[in-house]
Design brief:
alpha/beta, Rossmann fold, 5-stranded parallel sheet, 5 strands
C-alpha cells in the first residue's frame, strides 16, 4: 500500500515508519503541524522531521504553515477541547493530500504516543477518511515507545519535552502549585 504518514515530529515518526516499511508498505511523510508553539519550537520540530526524513530516505511533503492565530482562534474559547481540534485539523489536511495525490491510505505518527487519545484519533481518522474517500490505517504503535526513543537518540534528533501547543507547554513547565 502507498501510505501517507502524518508526522508530528521526527522522533515520533521513526517507529511507525520502520514498522510500516517492514510490512512492505510504500510510505511518504507529511509534515503539517499548525499546533506547535512557540515558533522556535515549531522550527526545531520541522527541522528534526526534515533531518529524520533525510536520514531514513523518506519522501516528505511539507506543509510549512506556522499559524498561531488560526490555531488559537479555534481553541481559545475551550482549551480543554484543544486536542480534538488538533487531531481533526491535522488528520483532515492529511486525508485531503492523500486523496489528491492518490495514496491508498493515510495514518499518523500520533498513534505512537502513549499520551494521545487513540480511540479518538482512530474514530476521527476513519470519519475523515470516508469524507475524502481514502482509508485511514489504524495501527497501535505504542509498543515501540522505547525503541523510538532509542532510535531518535541514535540519529541525534531533537526530542521535544511537550506535546506541541502552547497549552501543553504550560502544563509541562508551570509549577503545579502555580497552576492551581
Amino acid at each position: 500500500m502507498r501510505i501517507l504518514l502524518h508526522i508530528c515530529c521526527g522522533p515520533c515518526a521513526l517507529y511507525p515508519l520502520r514498522t510500516l516499511r517492514s510490512a512492505g508498505h510504500d510510505v511518504t511523510g507529511f509534515f503539517y503541524n499548525h499546533n506547535i508553539h512557540p515558533y522556535q519550537e515549531y522550527a526545531r520540530r520541522r527541522d528534526a522531521a526534515v533531518d529524520m526524513a533525510r536520514q531514513e530516505q523518506l519522501p516528505l511533503i511539507m506543509h510549512d504553515d506556522y499559524d498561531l492565530e488560526g490555531f488559537l482562534s479555534n481553541v481559545a474559547a475551550e482549551p480543554d477541547k484543544r486536542c480534538s481540534y488538533c487531531y481533526a485539523s491535522r488528520l483532515r489536511i492529511t486525508a485531503q493530500v492523500a486523496a489528491e495525490q492518490g495514496f491508498d491510505t493515510f495514518t499518523a505518527a500520533l498513534l505512537y504516543s502513549r499520551y494521545q487519545k487513540h480511540d479518538e484519533i482512530r474514530q476521527l481518522g476513519e470519519e475523515i477518511g470516508r469524507e475524502y474517500g481514502v482509508a485511514f490505517h489504524y495501527e497501535d504503535f505504542r509498543s515501540g515507545w522505547q525503541e523510538g526513543i532509542r532510535l531518535s537518540k541514535e540519529l541525534g534528533l531533537y526530542r521535544q519535552q511537550y506535546c506541541g501547543c502552547i497549552y501543553s507547554e504550560k502544563d509541562r513547565y508551570l509549577p503545579k502549585a502555580q497552576a492551581e
